[in-house]
């Protein structure tokens, strides 16, 4: 067996969700799964492509029209300029994009800086490729990596090959602002490392538009994005890697051996989403924003402190001080007694202990009922 694989535990989020699923009457606020359906015009495009017999291999990088649509979308939305022919690969979701990117740049013994708390997939993938994870706890800095802490991590560790940035972030919902990204970009540029920037929640930002670090260091950045969150297309598995042409050539080798090419008709659905549904995600975003305000106000009354999310659809809430058990024990008790399912903060690495992640990608009725249950639970048990 792969010795690196033996050291990796199953995904803690999926595992805990599976554990709680046995709880009868539970309201699950656990997974990052939009409760919206894929837009009708996108589904119709997929059906049409199937009827037109689009069921064959495509160019491994994706059909050119789709890559052109992606290049236009990301240029119009975020000012990113990528050549469709040479700088974009269509992937089976951002999950594949993370794997491909790390497999391309890492050698055994390399290190990757990961600001935590964060989605555990990054850390597991790094270890799977024989590299070391350098966790930088951001809990004392508003869940944002500071340039000073990045400099410190670079100075204290050897063989640093890359840094992973997730903005807007999972599990915190916090986005990096333009000023911070510029400062981080300068440190990254001076250190000559790669930046893997996961921007899957870029269409779900509140108050300010999304900014990509690739605007400042495009020659060192691998941008990962897709349609899972913006167009409620998690099950379609469609994403994009954008990077300099020479790096894309190398990533494409891994991509070809991993999946050959993304499903043909799914690419035509994505083409429709980008060409005729570029703003589909904004309506969903407005609904999420309303839910965020509702949930955060209810949690505050129950004694949960949390930074106000600026993107995604999660609240990372500090468990009230009167509860002394760890976040896993607290989350289990909340599920068993209040019938509300959340994810323990420790699942997301350093800085997550004592927190819970709550997804508000669910109905307003579910959230209102969950708030009542949580408030009653705190009164009875706190």
TrEMBL record:
Its cofactor is pyridoxal 5'-phosphate. Residues 26-374 form the Aminotransferase class I/classII large domain. It is an enzyme of class 2 (transferase). It comes from the Bacteria. The keyword Mitochondrion does not apply. GO terms for molecular function: transaminase activity. Its EC number is 2.6.1.-. It holds the Pfam family Aminotran_1_2. Keywords: Aminotransferase, Pyridoxal phosphate, Transferase. The keyword Iron does not apply. Belongs to the class-I pyridoxal-phosphate-dependent aminotransferase family. This is Aminotransferase. It comes from Apilactobacillus timberlakei. The lineage of its organism: Bacteria, Bacillati, Bacillota, Bacilli, Lactobacillales.
């Amino acid at each position: 067996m792969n010795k690196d694989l033996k050291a990796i535990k199953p995904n803690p989020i999926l595992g805990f969700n599976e554990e709680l699923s046995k709880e009868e009457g539970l309201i699950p606020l656990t997974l990052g799964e939009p409760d919206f359906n894929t837009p009708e015009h996108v589904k119709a495009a997929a059906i049409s492509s199937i009827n037109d017999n689009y069921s064959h291999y495509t160019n491994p990088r994706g059909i050119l029209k789709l890559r052109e649509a992606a290049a236009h979308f990301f240029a119009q939305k975020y000012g990113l300029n990528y050549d469709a022919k040479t700088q974009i690969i269509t992937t089976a979701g951002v999950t594949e994009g993370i794997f491909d990117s790390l497999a391309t740049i890492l050698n055994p013994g390399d290190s990757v800086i990961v600001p935590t708390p964060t989605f555990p997939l990054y850390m597991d993938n790094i270890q799977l490729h024989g590299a070391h994870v350098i966790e930088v706890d951001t809990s004392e800095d508003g869940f944002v990596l500071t340039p000073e802490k990045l400099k410190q991590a670079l100075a204290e560790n050897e063989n640093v090959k890359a840094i992973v940035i997730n903005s807007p972030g999972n599990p915190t919902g916090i986005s990096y602002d333009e000023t911070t990204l510029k400062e981080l970009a300068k440190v990254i540029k001076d250190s000559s490392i790669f930046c893997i920037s996961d921007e899957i929640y870029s269409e779900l930002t509140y108050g300010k538009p999304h900014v990509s670090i690739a605007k400042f260091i495009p020659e060192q950045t691998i941008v990962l994005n897709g349609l899972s969150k913006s167009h409620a297309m998690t099950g379609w598995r469609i994403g994009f890697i954008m990077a300099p042409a020479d790096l894309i050539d190398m990533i494409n080798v891994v991509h070809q051996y991993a999946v050959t090419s993304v499903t043909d008709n799914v690419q035509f659905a994505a083409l429709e989403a980008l060409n005729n549904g570029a703003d589909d995600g904004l309506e969903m975003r407005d609904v999420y924003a309303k839910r965020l305000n509702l949930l955060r106000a209810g949690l505050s009354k129950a004694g949960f402190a949390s930074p106000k999310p600026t993107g995604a659809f999660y609240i990372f809430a500090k468990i009230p001080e009167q509860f002394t058990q760890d976040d896993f024990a607290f989350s289990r008790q909340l599920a068993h007694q209040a019938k509300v399912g959340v994810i323990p903060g420790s699942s997301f690495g350093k800085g997550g202990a004592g927190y819970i992640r709550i997804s508000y990608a669910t109905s307003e009725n579910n959230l209102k009922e969950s708030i009542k249950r949580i408030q009653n639970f705190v009164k009875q048990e706190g």
